[in-house]
């Protein structure tokens, strides 16, 4: 009796549409799992490195030392480097000149731009995961509908509509829907997890940026925080030349 669900046989004997659906689901699965592994590893590394460098930054004796010893790939260290570079640039080219942008606004704009760049990099690849999670079930459903249609046409031509003749082909076609869901569910779960992780990291960076902005513009960290004073950090940005590569 040929009533067993042989999905591989269903694919091998299918037409171009069936093969295209199967290849599409396989490609989406490979792409989503690649992004899940790569982006998941990057998210863990970035959050760990950012927390470590943020703590080291506020424990250092000066911004010079904190930037020099921090990892360049750390979001917090990168933000600090751009902020100090903006402060140096403002002092060298604007200083006490009348008009133009104030120091605090100039530094804040540089920080916002850096935060925007970090957000863009964090979101790269997430569109693919969202698309796979949305499209894969419909691709699988299309494969099922197409397979059932051809199965029913073959049964009608053979003139034998018994249960064992119907269950096999229809069951094989329904596996397409299951495959679509199997591809979509991990992509959706990974997308939601990565989006939440990115939001937490950006919130931590925004908090760090606010405290750093206060330090650069006033010369001391906010009194309400537990961050130690950095006495040599803001006395003359000229001494920080050469630190920003």
Shape: rod-shaped
How much strand? under 5%
Computed structural class: mainly alpha
Characterize the main sheet: none
- Overall pLDDT, averaged? 77
Question: What's the arrangement of secondary structure elements?
Answer:
Elements lengths: L6 H6 L3 H44 L3 H7 L5 H19 L9 H21 L2 H33 L4 H56 L27
Helix pairs in contact: 2-3, 2-6, 2-7, 4-5, 4-7, 5-7, 6-7
How is this structure best described in words?
The protein is mostly helical and 245 residues long. The chain is 76% helix and 0% strand. The chain has seven helices and no strands. Helix 2 packs antiparallel against helix 6, helix 2 runs parallel beside helix 7 and helix 5 (103-123) packs antiparallel against helix 7.
Summarize the structure.
The chain is built from seven helices and no strands. It is mostly helical.
Structure characteristics:
245 residues, mainly alpha, 7 helices, rod-shaped, disordered N terminus
């Amino acid at each position: 009796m040929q009533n067993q669900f042989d999905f591989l046989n269903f694919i091998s004997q299918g037409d171009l549409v069936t093969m295209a659906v199967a290849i599409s689901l396989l490609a989406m699965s490979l792409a989503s799992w690649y992004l899940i592994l790569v982006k998941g590893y990057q998210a863990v590394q970035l959050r760990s490195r950012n927390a470590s460098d943020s703590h080291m930054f506020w424990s250092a004796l000066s911004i010079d030392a904190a930037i020099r010893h921090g990892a360049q790939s750390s979001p917090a260290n990168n933000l600090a480097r751009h902020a100090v570079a903006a402060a140096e640039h403002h002092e060298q080219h604007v200083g006490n000149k009348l008009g133009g942008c104030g120091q605090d606004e100039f530094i804040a704009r540089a920080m916002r731009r850096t935060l925007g760049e970090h957000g863009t990099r964090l979101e790269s690849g997430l569109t693919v995961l969202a698309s796979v999670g949305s499209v894969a079930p419909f691709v699988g459903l299309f494969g099922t509908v197409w397979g059932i249609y051809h199965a029913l046409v073959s049964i009608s031509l053979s003139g034998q509509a018994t249960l064992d003749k119907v269950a096999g082909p229809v069951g094989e076609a329904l596996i397409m829907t299951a495959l679509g869901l199997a591809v979509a569910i991990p992509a959706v779960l990974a997308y939601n997890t990565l989006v939440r992780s990115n939001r937490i990291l950006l919130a931590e960076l925004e908090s760090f940026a606010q405290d750093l902005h206060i330090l650069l513009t006033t010369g001391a960290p906010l009194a309400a925080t537990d961050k130690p004073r950095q006495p040599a950090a803001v006395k003359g940005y000229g001494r920080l030349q050469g630190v920003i590569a």
